[in-house]
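Sat 14:20. Reprocessing the chain from the morning session after the first attempt stalled halfway. Input below, unchanged.
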Amino acid sequence: MIIANDVETLPLAFSVKEKAKVFFDAHEYAPRHFEDKLMWRIFFQGFNTWLCKKYIPQVAGMTTVGKGLAREYEKHFNVNPTVVTNANYYFDLLPSPVVENK
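Finished this time. Tokens:
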């Protein structure tokens, strides 16, 4: 199995996979990753969208870090990613006192 952590790594993963399966772990919604930057929108947004359209339908499985991202990928690329959050379980902790000179 090959795990691709960003959409930009999918072409490489598929080019070397031979008999391996490719798994896509999306940490952001690639077509809108840096949409606040004009230069990125001009030069990379269309490319990232094309990568998603071309490669996501071929992956053996896909995860993402939140329900909102999963819904966007499902809506635009007809996939159903599994959500695996980057957050740990909640623990109700109290801060400890600060020790001088530490």
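DSSP finds three helices and four strands in the chain.
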